[in-house]
Amino acid sequence: MSKLTEDAKGVYVIAVTPFTENGALDLESVDRMVDFYEEAGATGLTILGQLGEAPKLTAEESRLVAERVLKRTDGRLPVVVGVSAPGLAAMRELSETVMGLGAAGVMVAPPWTLKTDDQIFAYYANVAEALGDTPFVLQDYPLTTNVTIAPKVIERIINEVETCVMLKHEDWPGLSKIGALRRSSDAGNTRRISILCGNGGLFLPEEIARGADGAMTGFCYPEMLVGVVREYAAGNPERAHDIFDAYLPLARYEQQQGVGLACRKYVLAKRGVIASPTLRKPGAALSPEDTADVERLLARQTRRLSEIAV
């Protein structure tokens, strides 16, 4: 598989990690999940992210999941692997393992201990040194990392750290950040890198309009992400918004802290993608009232999709 580059675009779906009802890895569901995302039109996959429950996996389990996904994709889709870790040694070890298995690149979020612009830059310079020629995605998700990265700091990283080839943009609100970065690269002040956006796709149409290249996020209906990106690329923004609007109520529900991932896994299990909606402990589960909410949203979504002929 070719390595990740600054030209990456489309939809890199953040994959869940399937577990059996007793919390063991469900590798058979991994195969079905990969097939499902590919058939839905995903450009690539991102595994072992926060919503892939990566912190709950052992090092060996992380290797097993990466190996299984990469074997199933068999080079057809680029795979980015989350390798964020408290220390650079563990990050380097997992990166070397997954790149050896055929991954296209890795994703690194900043640790919460970073407080200043200089500390943030120094951290990613150290990451690049530790990872060698492995291309990496800078995950900018201050809502969970508590690290705010200003556009000028991202620009410095882009200009001085060659192996940073993508920004996973999850600032919120953050549309102005995308605009600032694109103006900088358009003016020739910075290298143009790929920008893919997260947050469950809640702002995807607006993010693409500001210059994002697509999405790197999860949603139990990846068809929405693919449809919005496809229609924008084809010059049909109104159609993109129609598709987005039809799925928005469920996407909004799925973005709740805690219960959101349980909602995503519930729907994926209902769709036959994974065998069980189980989250590894500690993890939330849907209450009967939550389940009723989701079922109501699914029914309304089905009706709306029929109305707009999707």
Automatic annotation (TrEMBL):
Top-level taxon of the source organism: Bacteria
InterPro entries, per the entry: Aldolase_TIM, DapA-like
UniProt KW ATP-binding keyword: no
Transcription regulation among keywords: no
UniProt-recorded name of the protein: Dihydrodipicolinate synthase family protein
Family classification: Belongs to the DapA family.
UniProt keyword terms in alphabetical order: Lyase
Molecular function via GO: 4-hydroxy-tetrahydrodipicolinate synthase activity
Organism ancestry: Bacteria, Pseudomonadati, Pseudomonadota, Alphaproteobacteria, Hyphomicrobiales
Source organism: Devosia pacifica
One GO location term (cellular component): cytosol
Positions contributing to pyruvate binding: 216
